[in-house]
Specification:
Layout lengths: L4 H13 L3 E5 L5 H12 L3 E5 L2 E5 L13 E2 L4 H12 L4 E5 L10 H9 L3 E4 L7 E4 L8 E3 L5 H12 L4 E6 L6 H8 L3 E6 L5 E6 L10 E2 L4 H13 L4 E8 L6 H8 L3 E10 L2 E9 L7 E2 L11 H9 L3 E6 L11 H11 L3 E4 L3 E6 L10 E2 L5 H13 L5 E2 L12 H7 L12
Parallel strand pairs: 1-12, 4-5, 8-9, 16-17, 20-21
Antiparallel strand pairs: 1-3, 2-3, 5-7, 6-7, 9-11, 10-11, 13-15, 14-15, 17-19, 18-19
Helix pairs in contact: 1-2, 1-3, 1-6, 2-3, 3-5, 4-5, 7-9, 7-11, 9-11
This protein binds shikimate-3-phosphate and phosphoenolpyruvate.
């Protein structure tokens, strides 16, 4: 599996900021993560590759350099938002640009807390890219309650807190992926996490402390990428697939839990801890799936996996109901409507609501396929519908597969290696 995308972004950010050298293995070499690496280089970090290891020489906390050119984050929401937090606490200017998809996504969710800390923002319209930010002489520490379930917002405020005097506190009402907190601790930051009786988490970070590079940082395989061969293995008759080295952090395994509840045969082999994270190998066998109701509480632990869950649901007996999907509307595409449109184009019965989706499955799927899916520059829409095509009666076509390289550059080869028929139709130059 390619390295986890969330952890890979953070490996460049923390490694580039720490003093000393961080050696990272297993990093995802996808376009999104590489954009974050380039941004850190533009601000003074040195990054080189030795064999399979990325060697990152950091600048030291508080010592980033002003970037001379706009920082281009391409398709990468995580990279752009976390870096905005990071540079917001520096008394210099930086400009953020991105592709057509990223330029439509809301940035106000990270800019609002940064403004509270004293950061100036100049955006052409409604806090969308392209935009420029400039930090004050010293940012003011804040206590910030994250208004939506978002690890990116939580992390952006914590990154800003790193170069802010005093204690920055982030309160998250529901737990989201905890990679930033874990890595802050690993890199030596002074951080304390309290879980309150109501389940909310209060994260306190003492600013301006030293971060130290890590001599051996390993990025485990990405469960959000593993989701595609997992669902393919469950829905394609005759499959028996083993996927090695998958991150099993409890904040990331909602899809695996849901598919097991649907009757999916997913065996957890050799569960172990590596570099402070739970990791396992997974054996997946073709299964008869049954519909389930997926509650809104599960959304944060599988937020990027709903498009491919919808594909699994298409082959499950009964009506699968998924609730609490409002955040899907602000991803690389409006994923809720992109999924609904892709299902409609390929004869899968479904209903779309403001923040819910119902998929009515057909385990045989003979009538499925034949449609063309509009991906809207969204890698997960592209990969999900290619998986639908693997088990459908007729082929499924996607309009553009190039974005797959943002998170899973090996996708086509890996799926073909498993026996999947994926044919690129490339236009002659
Ligand atoms: O923090 C992260 O690495 C991510 C958080 C999630 O976004 P939100 O914070 O917007 O939920 C997720 O969708 C994204 O792919 C990666
Ligand atoms: C939402 C995603 O990424 P990002 O927000 O980093 O663009 C994703 O990878 O599914």
């Amino acid at each position: 599996m390619p390295g986890d995308k969330s952890i890979s972004h953070r490996a460049f950010l923390f490694g580039g900021l720490a003093s000393g050298t961080t050696r990272v293995t297993g990093l995802l070499e996808g376009e999104d993560v590489l954009a974050t690496g380039r941004a850190m280089i533009a601000m003074g970090a040195l990054i080189r590759k030795e064999g399979q290891t990325f060697v990152v020489d950091g600048v030291g906390n508080g010592c980033l350099l002003e970037p001379e050119e706009p920082l281009d984050f391409g398709n990468a929401g995580t990279g752009a938002r976390l870096t905005m937090g990071l540079v917001g606490a520096y008394h210099f200017g930086s400009t953020f640009v991105g592709d057509a998809s990223l330029s439509k996504r809301p940035m106000g969710r990270v800019l609002d807390p940064l403004r509270e800390m004293g950061v100036q923002v100049v955006a052409r319209s409604k806090d969308r890219l392209p935009l420029s930010i400039h930090g004050p002489k010293a940012t003011a520490p804040i206590e910030y309650r994250v208004p939506m379930a978002s690890a990116q917002v939580k992390s952006a405020v914590l990154f800003a807190g790193l170069n802010t005097p005093g204690v920055t506190t982030v309160i998250e009402p529901v737990m989201t992926r905890d990679h930033t907190e874990k890595m802050l601790e690993g890199f030596g930051a002074n951080i304390e996490v309290e879980t309150k009786p109501d389940g909310s988490r209060h994260i306190h970070l003492q600013g301006q402390g030293e971060l130290r590079g890590l001599s051996d940082f390993q990025v485990p395989g990405d469960p959000s990428s593993a989701a595609f061969p997992i669902v393919a293995g469950l829905v394609v008759p005759g499959s028996d697939v083993t996927i090695e080295n998958v991150l099993m952090n409890p904040t990331r395994i909602g899809l695996i839990e849901t598919l097991r509840e649907m009757g999916g045969s997913i065996e957890i082999l050799d569960a172990r801890t590596e570099g402070g994270e739970d990791v396992a190998d997974l054996r997946i066998r073709h299964s008869e799936l049954t519909s389930v109701e997926v509650t809104a509480e599960r959304a944060p632990s599988m937020i990027d996996e709903y498009p491919v869950l919808a594909v699994a649901a298409a082959f499950a007996k009964g009506r699968t109901v998924m609730r609490g999907l409002d955040e899907l509307r602000v991803k690389e595409s409006d994923r809720l409507s992109a999924v609904a449109a892709g299902l409609a184009a390929n004869n899968v019965r479904h209903e779309e609501g403001a923040d819910w989706l119902v998929v009515e499955g057909d385990p045989e799927g003979r009538g499925y396929g034949g449609g063309s899916v509009v991906t809207h520059l969204d890698h997960r829409i592209a990969m999900s519908f290619l998986v639908l095509g693997l088990a459908s009666g007729k082929p499924v076509t996607i309009d553009d597969g190039r974005m797959i390289a943002t998170s899973f550059p090996e996708f086509e080869d890996l799926m073909k290696g498993l026996g999947g028929m994926i044919e690129p139709i490339r236009e002659e130059a």
